[in-house]
Amino acid sequence: MAILGKLVKAGIDITSKLQFAEDTPEVSQEKQLRELLTEAKNTAFGKYYGFEDILKSEDPVSSFRKEVPIFNYQTMHEQWWARQERLNDITWPGKPDFFARSSGTTGKSSKRIPITKEFMASMRSVGSSMINSLHEFDFPESLFESEVLMLSSSANLDENEQGFKEGEISGINVSNFPDWYDIFYRPGKDIAAISDWDERVNAIAEQAPGWNIGAIAGIPSWVLLMLKRIIERHQLKSIHDIWPNLQVYATGGVAFETYREDFEAVCETPLTILDTYLASEGFIAYTSKPDTMAMKLALNHGYFFEFIPFDERGINETGDLLSNPLVLGIDEVEVGKEYVLILSSCAGAWRYAIGDVIRFESLNPPQIKITGRTKFFLNVVGSQLSEEKMDKAILELAEANKTTINEYMVGAIKNEAGDYIHQWVLVSEVKPSGLANKLDELLKSANKNYAVARSKALKGIDVKVISKDQYTSYLSATNKKGGQTKTPKVMKTEKMNALLEFISQP
């Protein structure tokens, strides 16, 4: 492994030096759009929306926007994707190889996103670009001599009646790893195929001392639970007792900051944290430079991006897109501004609103941060609280109480008098006394619209605290337990009431 580590590091260094100058983001994106349109022009979708004519126009980007409407999952699925299991060439040539069941946090049921062979190749290409960017971090050779632990959803995919295999995107990726990945990939396909989450993590904990882990990838909440179980199983002081070469954690799926302190508590030496934007719809961005959590957009990997301002020009008061929103290209966005991301991809997604809100941190290269979900915009009575502002208030609340609060849920519900309040449920060991007033003050200072709402229609807030065991039990009861599962931070009234009923049970 030592020789292999030297070769890998040398290869990454050489690749970085041989890279040619990239096109401007605007030119790169137009090329991507042309390639996507060319590939899909003879599909049912391409013929219906005139891809052939769009390609012949002087300005294909403008023509594309004019001819093709913006889709959300419901409209794309009902009008197009639902036909792909029976028919060829619907939104992309041929039929999908897989369907990814989205583990996202909005909607009443799982989404089924088509996964094509070109899409799988695209995700591998972005992954390779991320690995090549490690040259910027100057990691020691020991990292490249070690193994990578990917905490995915189950790689044991389901097969539907039409013969298509389905699973979460991380499980689909793992199930398609070539055999030579076994050299460095852990926990291996056998353990990854275990469907039951607790059984899978127990198997990982049992095998952990025999591995030389240098990097971990996965959603923070579940990775943290896994690390704690390993430490408990082997009576360790920190995870570095058995994995001294552990140096990198690639996070994703949710904001990391509310977990940072707990990760530091289980590690003897600090980890380099890399953020990733890896969704069922694509491997969209990744951290490519040290000392930042901003992520470089994957502009040359089979995706075409558009951006809708996350303000009155693009959304209404509930966070839904306007019927005719302002749409911007990569050359029109501004640093520090928030946008709803619109994606077209080689999986046959066209002008597809994923539901994420991003903010540009730089333009050269284009680097972003995810600031929340459009549906995590709490505005029932004009409070206008974004996920980022709520995260910030929760971090400050935890710091003020010298504790950690990894997870929280909030919803607008009516009290006994029929007035709206914000109901918060925090996952922590902190005592609930005084939390409501403190959180209320933090939110007022963070957002003037919230302060105005509190003086009018929003009559108060209530805070309940549950343990991590209660939270895990709730996830199990709602079939939300697993390596890639995320839970909604902003809940609708019915879901919040169901959660309150669950935690009130003895």
In short:
This protein has 506 residues and is an alpha/beta fold. The protein is 35% helix and 21% strand.
Annotation keywords:
disordered N terminus, acid-amino acid ligase activity, 506 residues, GH3_C, alpha/beta, 4-stranded mixed beta sheet, 18 helices, 11-stranded mixed beta sheet, GMP Synthetase, Chain A, domain 3, 2 domains, 21% strand
Description:
By secondary structure, the protein is of the alpha/beta class. The chain folds into two domains: 1-15 and 42-59 and 66-301, no CATH class; 378-504, GMP Synthetase, Chain A, domain 3, CATH 3.30.300. The chain is 35% helix and 21% strand. The protein has 18 helices and 18 strands. It has helices at residues 2-18, 25-40, 44-48, 51-56, 60-67, 73-79, 117-133, 141-144, 169-175, 189-192, 197-207, 220-233, 260-265, 387-400, 435-446, 448-454, 468-477, 493-504, and strands spanning 98-101, 112-115, 147-150, 158-159, 165-167, 185-186, 213-217, 248-252, 272-279, 282-286, 295-297, 303-309, 338-345, 352-363, 366-373, 407-414, 420-427, 458-466. An eleven-stranded mixed sheet has the order 6-3-7-8-9-10-11-15-14-13-12. Strands 2-1-5-4 form a four-stranded mixed sheet. Strand 16 (407-414) and strand 17 form a beta hairpin. Helix 15 (435-446) crosses helix 16 (448-454). The longest helix is centred in the first third of the chain and has 17 residues, at 2-18. It is globular, with a radius of gyration of 23 Å. The N and C termini lie far apart (53 Å).
